[in-house]
Please model this.
Amino acid sequence: MPLAAALDVSHLPDYAYDWALVDVETSGLIARRDRILSIAVLTFGPDGTQTGEYSTLVNPGCDPGPVHIHGLTAERLRDAPAFEQVAGRIGALLQDRVMVAHNAQFDYDFLAHEFARARLCLPVNQRLCTLALNRRVEPPAADLSLASLAAHYGVPQTRAHDALDDTRVLAGIFRSSLSEAARLDVPLPLVPCPPRQDPRFAPKPPKSPCAYRNPGRPAPGGPLVQGMKIAVTGETATSRAELVARAVAAGLNIMSSVSRHTSALVTNDAASGSAKARRAIAEGVPILDERTFLGLLSEVRPGTPHEHQPSKKIPEATPPDAPTPSPAATAAVATVPEPRRPEPEQSAPRRPEPERPEPGQSAPRRPAPERPAPEGPEPRQPDPERPATRRPARPFGRRRVLVLGGTHEEASAARSRVVELGGAAAINLSASVTDVVLLPGGELDRRMNRVTSLELPVHAPDWLGDPCAEPADAPARDGATADVLPRGGVIDLPTAGRWHVSASWAQQTNCEIDVVAFVLDEDEQVSCDGDFVFYGAPESPDGATRLLCDGPTEQSVAVDLAALPPAARRIAIAAAVDGAATFGDVGAVHLTLAPGVDAPAAAQATLDAATSERTLLLAEIYRRGPRWRFRAVGQGYDHGLETLVRGYGVDVE
Model:
């Protein structure tokens, strides 16, 4: 695939890199468990000249997995080299180059684990995902799978799931995507890759979830009941491992932190002043000494399995123990139109499951969060549940509008008006933008030069007050079939399947944003610390919830509804600004919901916080009777991530 024949970006510093294009075929989807079966690497210079090519089969030393997908049988792989035999050559091709792949985190994670098993350092400092790049470019393709993008860009594909052919196809797609990015002046979604040579970086083995719902606290002198949440602090005569093992075997849920939902704290020194002891005293949690607890373990009463719990009404998302939203937040969200009640009930989105494997589980690492600030008062009572809805066609049904200039509040109100009119609010310039609204100061935006060269219609703010209706014969645009949800908008999901909630925002230089997720039980608490998914622990213990880093301004949470434990009632997804900046500095956050990593969006929303918020609840996926639902939340809080984490029952110490 002659990349050099069509593109030379060596004169564009923001796009001129040495590249290593990679594709791997694997025995499964989980990088810490499965193995690479074949790999291909193509290298290119900034001028588009191909400088190297290498491909090989790899003997994984295990079952090759889904042969019907990759066609690599154990017989074909028997005489292939082991990965450690070819790691040196692969490393030489990756050295000092930006690694490029389609769904790059998947390929990167598998390479990181294979290099770690070989006790070598993966020599990749930056990676670029062509999925993330095309999300920024937004070409009018059917979806963002390798096959669809190949068809859109006119790249021939002869052998799908063959590493070498897929890499050559990737080269053609990358050539066209890079050309489009340069035409639109779109920043490249380069992701820094920290060293990953330590084989111990993989997530810990999953903790078996407790099978019983939390019955609450024991009566004074009463028995323990299966499902009770038990925390332990301080020195114990029995080893901590044995104490935990006996409690888990009895059906109790051992927690590493204390919240108001904790059933009992086990300690031999209630006056120790430990954080757990202080919290237990403050919350009125019963305190048991070790001897009493061991005696109660012999007669734990049967509990109620999670499967037998009747569905509870799900309130509007508000983190437990979190302060009420700031007055600035309340004032800002008042400009966002509330969802209209539907005529018919919304049916589940109709989207096929993509064939591309799920990505791996790594994410950029940061230092552990600091100890949280004191928690605020109880949250306000939520509004009643609103039914799921598909918004009716409106004048802007096929428009995607980019708002430039204005204050944060003015831009937020303008984007809300776009959504009210049935359109989609863009936060970045891409090929799918149809119109631009220019607020005061917008003429100074660096993107205006590209807007002018692309001859996009530019409107004054009053255009939103008296819009022109969309022509009946206007062509459908990418994402036009996705539901555009306002703040609080809800859509029904199938009861099982993989869903990706992706958040993106405009490129900033003065702050970074971390997306996190919480798998919550009926008490609106995590069942264990592992159910807090963030950059340092990017996968829940069961693997059902994963954090994916697609770029410096794009992060996703992947949720496999079928793999969630029975206790899971809600997955809350939030974003937090790292440092002193606020979401007023960041601006709008664009949210998409898709039934796969490269599938078209089923729903989208543009969420604006006000000026002072440092934490933003983006969305939630929750049970409603027999169904799962998705809600675009958009609720901002002035406190930081640490307070949000503690409110959901995670011990941040």
